Amino acid sequence: MTDLRITGVQVIDLRFPTSRESIGSDAVNKDPDYSAAYCILETNHGLRGFGLTFTCGHGNELCCDAIRYLARYVKDRTLSSITDDLAAFSRQLTGDTQFRWLGPEKGVIHLATAALINAVWDLYSRAENKPLWQLLAEMEPERIASVIDFHYINDALTRDEAIALLKERRAGQEDRLEHLRANGLLAYTTSVGWIGFSDEKISRLCDEALAAGWTHFKLKVGGDPADDRRRARMVREKIGPSHRLMMDANQKWDVEEAILRTRELQQFDPWWMEEPTSPDDVLGHARIRREVPGVRIATGEHCQNRILFKQFMQAHAIDVCQIDSCRLAGVNENIAVILLAAKFGIPVCPHAGGVGLCEYVQHLAAFDYLRVSASLENRVVEFVDHLHEHFVDPVRIRRGHYLLPEQPGYSIEIYPETLRDYSYPDGRIWRS
Ligand SMILES: [Mg+2]
Known about the structure:
The chain has helices spanning 60-70, 79-83, 86-94, 107-127, 132-137, 141-146, 159-168, 173-183, 199-211, 225-239, 255-265, 282-291, 306-314, 330-344, 357-372, 416-421, 428-431, and strands spanning 6-15, 35-43, 48-55, 185-193, 216-220, 244-248, 270-274, 297-299, 320-321, 381-383, 397-398, 401-402. The protein is an alpha/beta fold. The chain has 2 domains: 6-155, Enolase-like, domain 1, CATH 3.30.390; 168-418, TIM Barrel, CATH 3.20.20. Strands 4, 5, 6, 7, 8, 9, 10, 11 and 12 form a 9-stranded mixed β-sheet that branches. Helix 1 crosses helix 4 (107-127), helix 3 packs antiparallel against helix 4 and helix 11 runs parallel beside helix 12. The protein is globular. The N and C termini lie far apart (44 Å). The model has no long low-confidence stretch (mean pLDDT 96). The structure holds magnesium ion (MG). Residues 248, 250, 274-275, 301 line the site of magnesium ion.
C-alpha cells in the first residue's frame, strides 16, 4: 500500500460522565469526567487510523482544537512519506513555529501531538497487519532508534548507545515472546482505591479483586492523614502481607509534607509512593527519595516530555518510571524514555486508566520487555477497570495479567455508537 494517502482527519470531543460515581477521584482530581480528544485518519484505501489523548473534562476542547490545527501535518500526505522518517514527523509537530510558544513540548499542544502521532502509528500497524507491539518488536535496532528525537537528550543517551543497547538485548527475544504469549504482562489494579469510595466499597472491591487473582493493588492517599492511615490499614489487612500495595498521592503534598506523610504511611509497607509532589519538581523528588529510604518513589504520568524524564533519572529522583502513552508525544517519545530508563536501570511501570490508556500501554510494555529492558523484575502495568466496553479491541485481563493484543493496530478504535452518544456537548449522554 505504498500509495496509502491520508485524505482527512476527523476530530471528536468525547467525554464520559465518570464524576457521577467518583470514578477516577483522587486527592487532587475530585470530579474527573474521563475524556478523549479523539481523531480518525481517513485514507484513500478505506483503512483508517485512530488516536486519542486523554483529559479530565473541559480542557478536552482545547486539545481538540490543537489537533485540528496540527492535522495539517498529516493531511494529504502518503503514509510512507511520514513513516520513512518518523523522528522528522515528530519534530514537525513539536516544532511548528506558530504553536511552539505554547510549550515547547508540553501541555495542550503536546497532548494533541500525541493523539496524532499515535493515530499515525495505529494506521501504520494496520497497514502492516500487525499489533503495534509486534511492529515495534520486529524492527531493526537502527530503525527503532530512527524514530527517536535525540534533541536535548543526547547528553544522557546517544543514538549509538541506543542502538548498542537494542542489539545487546536482542538475545532471548523469542523466549520472552513465548513467555508473554503464555502469561501476559503482570498488572496492578487501581480500581479498588479511589479516594471518593467509601470504606465498605473499597473493602468489597478488594475482596472481588483478590478472588479475580489480583496480587498488586493501589490506594489513593493525600487526604486527611487519619483517613489515609485507616484506609491503608484496611487495604493492607485485606490483601495480606505478601501482596503489593502501592500508594498514589497525585501531587497533593509539598516536599516536606510528602516526606512526613510518606514516613507515616511506611508502616503499611508501600511498594512505592507515586506523585508525592509537583510533577515538575525533580530535586524535590530526589530529596523525598533520599529522606524516606525504603519507599520507592514513582512518577511520570504528568511528566511532560523526555527532557524532564532525563533529569529525574540523572538526579536519582525516581525508582519507578511511569510513562504515559499520550502525555509524552506518542509512541516515538515513549520509546525514547523507555530507552533512557534502560540505560539508567530504572524499571518502567506504565501509567494507565483514564480512557484508552490501558489499551495503549500494553503495547509499550510488551515492546519494552521484548526489546529493551528484557526483564520483568519490578515491572507491573497499571490497570483500571472502566470504559473498556467502548473499544473495538479492548484489553483482555486474565488473573491480574494483560494478555497480548492480537489485532492489528494500537487497540484504540472506539465504537461508532460511543462516538455518537458520548460526544460533547450534543451526544445523547450529555443532553439527558
Ligand atoms: Mg497516578
